[in-house]
Amino acid sequence: MAAITTEGLTKHYGDVRANEDLTFEVREGEVFGYLGPNGAGKSTTIRTLMGFQSPTSGSATVLGHDVTDRKAMIEAKRHLGYVPAEMGFDEDVTGERFLRYQASLKGDSRSEELLELFDPPMEREIGEYSTGNKRKLAIVLAFMHDPDLVIMDEPTSGLDPLMQERFYEFIRDEQAKGKTFFFSSHILSEVQKICDRVGVIRNGHLVELEDVETLLDRGGKRVSVRVADPVDREAFAIEGAHDVSVAGDERSSRPTTADGGERDDGARATGDRPSSADGAAKNEDASSGGRDGTSVSFTFTGDYNDLLSHLVTYDILDLDIADAPLEDVFMRFYGEVDPETESAASGTAEAESGPEGNADV
Ligand SMILES: Nc1ncnc2c1ncn2[C@@H]1O[C@H](COP(=O)(O)OP(=O)(O)OP(=O)(O)O)[C@@H](O)[C@H]1O
């Protein structure tokens, strides 16, 4: 049995089409990442899966229970954990008291162990907690009844890096025990670290459903090459090369696609720009070079033989070829406009804003 199923799941808020015809499954024992830019519809799906709101149409099950069936969802929640995006705690009570109250509702088989791991200040009133401590308490509460499936809405937001790592390790250990996770995230590095599969939602539509490994394979290679002679960017507009930038080429601050078109994702452009030998623009006609050669970098998703045939035409001083980071995969992905999904999102003002300027999604 799948841990979660959705079939044509749709949720509209008036004119806003927050979720549109979503069909997917989360398999038992997997860590499933749910990705998308702000306003894409992630929390909407999560709220529907938790039974907090009814879908406009379509259906969904969690641990085999229909999410619109109140009684069934009460049963499901005995085996279901939830980390919400907004932690609506009663601020006047201590963490300890809140935990005891939750324990009386859903049981507690492991809070001691969880408190040792995540360590929120239990004796203090929750109103005095920092965001990170509230998140730690939310994690303890979500896992204290040892659920089989945990649904989490950006669970690591507000956690410091050390605590994030501890959380990832904890998730891996829990997965090894057969637990299932569905969580939304903006942080691609965490998705890369802990997810088996990802679903990508954009403007309310599921636009990708894939193994993380396959996505990384599809992401191709990040190639950084330093050649002895001046070259211009167009020389590397070969089939399968994306986001070509040449050190010293002013225009390379706007990454290109292989067909020479410019993409409008400022964060990537700045982050990917390689440092030239002296860091200065050298040549107005977009070619460059110098005593230390010319640095060219790009993402490559084409035929490796073509790449190597092209590279051997240069006097190569240095070469580095590595897996492209998941960011590259997603930025390219979001850069492609699908007219069908774009038009379907009319009325979703936030959804139209997209991920510009974010290195993560
Ligand atoms: N209760 C609501 N009433 C009206 N519109 C809503 C409501 N909740 C969400 N929306 C709209 O639905 C769309 C999807 O929102 P949702 O919160 O699901 O996105 P998200 O992917 O979780 O975004 P974020 O990453 O910013 O949390 C947005 O356009 C949002 O403004």
TrEMBL record:
InterPro entries, A to Z: AAA+_ATPase, ABC_transporter-like_ATP-bd, ABC_Transporter_VariousFunc, P-loop_NTPase
Skewed-composition ranges (Basic and acidic residues): 244-253, 260-271
Record-linked Pfam families: ABC_tran
PROSITE patterns: ABC_TRANSPORTER_2
Superkingdom classification of source: Archaea
Keywords assigned: ATP-binding, Nucleotide-binding, Transport
Biased composition (Low complexity): 342-361
ABC transporter domain segment(s): 4-228
Region of interest (Disordered), ranges: 244-295, 340-361
A molecular function (GO) term: ATP binding
UniProt protein name: ABC transporter
Species of origin: Halococcus thailandensis JCM 13552
